[in-house]
Write a structure and sequence with these properties.
The radius of gyration is 19 Å and the shape is globular. With 328 residues, it is of the alpha/beta class. It folds into two domains: 4-175, 3-Layer(aba) Sandwich (Peroxisomal Thiolase, Chain A, domain 1), CATH 3.40.47.10; 178-327, Thiolase/Chalcone synthase (Peroxisomal Thiolase, Chain A, domain 1, 3-Layer(aba) Sandwich), CATH 3.40.47. It contains ten helices and 13 strands. It binds acetyl coenzyme *A. The site of acetyl coenzyme *A has 23 residues, from α2, α6 and α7.
């Protein structure tokens, strides 16, 4: 029997602070009706000034470990997906590894924006299957509220902060586990979603004669067009490669960026609404946190049970996108 990468426990964390659409309407020229109709978002969670990505990641990881019953000392690797880590370096995964007492584990970050957790799961799956590890902690976390221009109504209404974490274990004699993953990218669309200043191209400490983005820039219309096609394609590809059909899927947990994008993806793969998990109204777009947060809530609500086939799909800055099929 081959080795499977099984999700043994899942945890989550979101900041306590809630920002509603009505709160936002006090900051910028927007309103609840526009945000709800165009995106499906009603409120989002926002970090305090003294709260960073690792704080959410550590809380989510502790919950995942407790649920799995795996001792932190038995973790071989911590893989953390984020574009909003505590620092440019060191990695946020290392901060988490230390905080949870995973003293035997290696640690590294994965940077694939809103598809980050899909990428991280794929790497973890490969390491578990070849025997490089027996237990891996995969964390998806983002704190995009820290990088939003609160005067730009076209972006600030979309994002929120959150984290999800999963303990994966290598198991034999089971049908459960990651079934198939597809990972895709198109760097020619890099300019559509970016944060220019703060890296080696435009270091923060320099002064520039030309203006550069200190905040998240997003070409919403272009991203929307890309997303609708990309996530439909990724879902079809992962199902085809697994030799499965959308009828086989028990639950669809897509990246929560826009309710209209989610609905069009579900329609493309002919999934009925009761098989589509949505929590965008509560959290907005939490980037790498979005899919694990969705999986966590779906399980908690009893919509995801052991043995169910779950389809996840993510897309974001890069451009990158991808999908996983997991036998829960
Ligand atoms: N409140 C009120 N009006 C607004 C707001 C707002 N918050 N934002 C924009 N508008 C106005 C615009 O100015 C425009 O007005 P105009 O017609 O007078 O010029 C009008 O509303 C329509 O604007 P559009 O941008 O055409 O609105 P659209 O229906 O395209 O929705 C949105 C915009 C929600 C951003 C959509 O394009 C979208 O969801 N794009 C995809 C975003 C995404 O998925 N990102 C994921 C990746 S993020 C990552 O990787 C980190």
């Amino acid at each position: 029997m081959s080795i499977k990468s099984v999700v043994q426990g899942i945890g989550h964390a979101v900041p306590d602070k809630v920002m509603t659409n009505h709160d936002l309407a006090k900051l910028v020229d927007t309103n609840d009706e526009w945000i709800t109709q165009r995106t499906g978002i009603k409120e989002r969670r926002i970090c305090r000034d003294d709260e960073a990505a690792s704080d959410l990641a550590v809380a989510a990881s502790r919950e995942a470990l407790a649920k799995s019953g795996v001792d932190p000392m038995d973790l071989d690797m911590v893989i953390l997906a984020t574009v909003t880590g505590d620092y440019i370096f060191p990695s946020t995964s290392g901060i988490v590894q230390d905080a949870i007492g995973a003293k035997r584990a290696g640690a590294f970050d994965v940077q694939a924006a809103c598809a980050g957790t899909i990428y991280a799961l794929s790497v973890a799956d490969a390491m578990l299957k070849v025997g490089h590890a027996k237990h891996i902690l995969v964390v998806g976390v983002d704190t995009l509220s820290k990088f939003v221009n609160w005067e730009d109504r076209s972006t600030c209404v979309l994002f929120g902060d959150g984290a999800g974490a999963m303990v994966l274990g290598a198991e034999e004699n089971t049908d459960r586990g990651i079934v198939k993953t597809v990972l895709l990218s198109d760097g020619s669309g890099a300019q559509h979603i970016c944060l220019e200043v703060g890296g080696s191209r435009y270091p923060l400490a320099r002064h520039y004669s030309e203006p550069h983005n200190h905040y998240i820039y997003m070409n919403g219309a272009e991203t929307y067009r890309f997303a609708v096609k990309a996530i439909g394609d990724a879902c079809c590809k992962v199902l085809e490669e697994a030799g499965l059909h959308s009828d086989d899927v028990d639950l669809f947990v897509p990246h929560q960026a826009n309710l209209r994008i989610i609905e069009s993806a579900a329609a493309r793969i002919e999934l009925p609404p009761d098989k589509v998990f949505v929590n965008i109204h509560k959290y907005g777009n939490t980037s790498a946190g979005s899919i694990p947060l969705g999986l966590y809530e779906a399980e908690k609500e009893g919509r995801l049970k052991k043995g169910d086939l779950v389809l996840t799909v993510g897309f974001g800055a890069g451009l990158v996108w991808g999908a996983n099929l997991i036998r829960w």
